[in-house]
Amino acid sequence: MRPSSLLPLTSRQSYIFILLVTLRVAESCLSALREGCMPDFHAVPMGMGGELLEMGRLNSEETSSDVLAQNSPGKGRQRLVDPDMGSTDFMFLQARVRKLEREFDDKTLFLMRSCNLTLDEVNVIYRSSPKLKMLSLKHHIEPILSRLSTEFRLSAASLGKLLTKFPTILYPACSRQFDDVVTFLQVMGINSSGMHRILTCRPQIFSLKIERNLNYTINFLLRDVNVPRHKLSTMLIKCPHIITLSVERKLRPALLFLQGLGLDATQIGNISAIYPYVFLFDVENKMRPTVRYLHDELNISSDNICRVICNKPQLLGYSVGKKLRPTVKFLVEEAGVPRHRIGDFVIRCPAMLGYSVDKNLRPTLNYIKTTCNISEPQDWMRYPRMLSYSLERRIKPRVESLTAIGHKLMTMGDVFHVMKQPEEKFRRMGRTGHLGTIHVL
Ligand SMILES: *[C@@H]1O[C@H](CO)[C@@H](O)[C@H](O)[C@H]1NC(C)=O
Ligand SMILES: *[C@@H]1O[C@H](CO)[C@@H](O)[C@H](O)[C@H]1NC(C)=O
Ligand SMILES: *[C@@H]1O[C@H](CO)[C@@H](O)[C@H](O)[C@H]1NC(C)=O
Ligand SMILES: *[C@@H]1O[C@H](CO)[C@@H](O)[C@H](O)[C@H]1NC(C)=O
Ligand SMILES: *[C@@H]1O[C@H](CO)[C@@H](O)[C@H](O)[C@H]1NC(C)=O
Ligand SMILES: *[C@@H]1O[C@H](CO)[C@@H](O)[C@H](O)[C@H]1NC(C)=O
Q1: HSE, side-chain direction, 13 A CA sphere, residue 405
Q2: Which whole-number Å values give the CA distances from 82 to 33, 39, 71, 78, 90, in the listed order?
Q3: How far apart are CA 64 and CA 50, in angstroms?
Q4: What is the residue with the minimal CA distance to atom 6 of ligand 3?
Q5: Where is the signal peptide (predicted)?
Q6: Domain end position, chosen among 104, 130, 157
Q7: Largest interatomic CA distance in the chain
């Protein structure tokens, strides 16, 4: 990786480096003076790698010791090169240099700057993968990070997250495995932007054994779950998590549950491709209680449950207590939907159960009721999809633009008729003044 792709140093880092250089210079001056010769101010300490030379140049307007003098009053240049300095001071200085050197070796510096990590974060990574300390910066770490950032366009921040989740990616054995997985995923039709997403979401995939894990899971998805082959790559990119799920503990129970609802193979394949997250939901704690609620409390038949789920598989992830009950309560108590009609309502517009009461449903309903002065407020129940339109982006602008040209929406039917039009058609309606059944004041 070229130094230009490294992050700039923070002022604190710069200060530490300058301090480090200064301490090294001071140390060599001290030794020279103690031995009675003139210190060689041009002897740049090399022990800390090229980074320090670069650092020295970054602040050429101030000399390192000026900075040190400014930053630690009373401990200026005079004091540092004072030949009378006591040997405890000298040892203190040496200990400090050694400590800084240990902390900021080339590898640590490189990780901090190329992956936007703090020293603490790098140390956490070292602790979780101690072998990292032995790896060669030049032969292992640099080439892999460089490849990740050029080939898969990972930013410094993404590299940092990747290393925090999956530090062993830098190990040589792992990087061979990495190549194999990349090739396998490429064969599955995943391009480099897909690879980027998988690396940022679920880097663990790159440590899976091809035969035993990866191909096994993929074959299960294709054969048992019936995911259409041409939709596999989109599915994996959408939800990289799915490849790391255990077939026996997670995927198969979810599949059996979906089959138990009465969904056929094509429907299950379709649902999985469109919304692979169904496999992340817990069968017993999430999906089964939700389906039971739809069936027992909303009186939706099993056939209709299948229809609703094909239409809106997200429903399977809604919590009964946090989402379904509060929404139904709002519909019954505030929006005036008779309790026994909620089931029909959900069948006609399953998305309704996904909207937030406070952010979508209540404001939209209030706006329609008040601003439009709908004469028959209960009427909106015939148009449940009304509530699926964005209040700020669709409903308000359209009502306002109609009001501006003197049209008044009198019934819910009118409102829905206007809202359901595609944008282009709506503009044409406005221009020609042909608004169908809409009353013109
Ligand atoms: C580096 O990480 C810090 C938080 O640790 C963040 O505020 C900063 O924006 C990141 N910089 C880049 C270039 O990503
Ligand atoms: C990569 O694949 C995804 C989905 O398969 C697609 O949406 C995207 O456009 C592709 N990107 C490139 C650069 O080909
Ligand atoms: C994956 O499994 C399929 C079907 O069993 C097989 O044809 C293919 O060779 C396997 N691929 C790899 C890379 O093992
Ligand atoms: C449940 O729905 C069926 C028809 O779908 C209906 O006959 C029955 O009366 C409903 N039961 C309740 C308790 O609403
Ligand atoms: C798959 O699902 C989509 C959206 O839910 C639907 O439009 C399509 O008809 C379904 N295809 C099959 C084969 O079920
Ligand atoms: C709302 O409509 C009713 C009749 O439908 C009318 O009496 C009332 O004045 C209207 N209110 C507003 C604010 O337009």
Answers
A1: 15
A2: 9, 12, 18, 6, 10
A3: 16
A4: 215
A5: 1-28
A6: 104
A7: 104
Single residue among 201, 228, 245 that ends a domain in this structure = 201
Assess contact for 175 and 213: CB atoms under 8 A. Answer: no
Phi, psi of 198 (to 5 degrees): -65, -40
pTM greater than 0.85: no
HSE at residue 428, side-chain half, CA atoms within 13 A, is 6
Q: Does pLDDT of 280 surpass 50? A: yes
Q: At what angle do helices 265-274 and 302-311 cross, to 10 degrees?
A: 40
Which structural domain range is residue 157 located in? 118-201
Partnered with residue 440 across adjacent β-strands are 407
**Nearest CA residue ID for atom 4, ligand 2:** 234
* Residue 188 Cβ < 6 Å to ligand 3: no
Q: Is 376 in the same domain as 426?
A: yes
Q: Is residue 110 part of a domain?
A: no
Element (H, E) at 326: helix 325-333
User: Residues 318-372: pLDDT tens digits?
Assistant: 999 999 999 999 989 888 888 888 999 899 889 889 899 999 889 988 888 887 7
Cα–Cα distance measured from residue 394 to residue 288, given in angstroms and rounded to the nearest whole number: 36
pLDDT greater than 50 at residue 62: no
- Looking at the structure of the chain, the number of domains it has is 5
Decide if pLDDT at 301 tops 80. Answer: yes
CA of residue 274 to ligand 5 center, whole Å: 9
Q: Are residues 71 and 100 in the same domain?
A: yes
Query: What is the per-residue burial (b if ≥16 Cβ within 10 Å, else e) of 123-141?
Result: eebbeebeebeebebeebb
Do residues 23 and 100 touch, judged by C-beta distance below 8 A? yes
